[in-house]
Amino acid sequence: MLKSRIRVFQHPVKLLLEINLGAVGGDAPRLKLFELAVDPASTVLDLLETLRAGQTAEDFPAYRHSCHHGSCGTCGALIGGRPALLCLTTVAMALDPADPSAAATVPAVLRLSPLPGATVVAGIAVHPGDLFASLPPGLDYLTTVDRVGKAALPADPTLAAGATPASAPAAAWPDERRTARLGVRFEACIECGLCRAACPVKAPFMGPAALAAFNCQRQKRPEQAAAWLALAAGPDGAGVCQRHLACSKVCPQAVYPAKHIQLLRNALAGAS
Question: Which one of 95, 106, 113, 192 is least enclosed by Cβ atoms within 10 Å?
Answer without folding.
Answer: 106
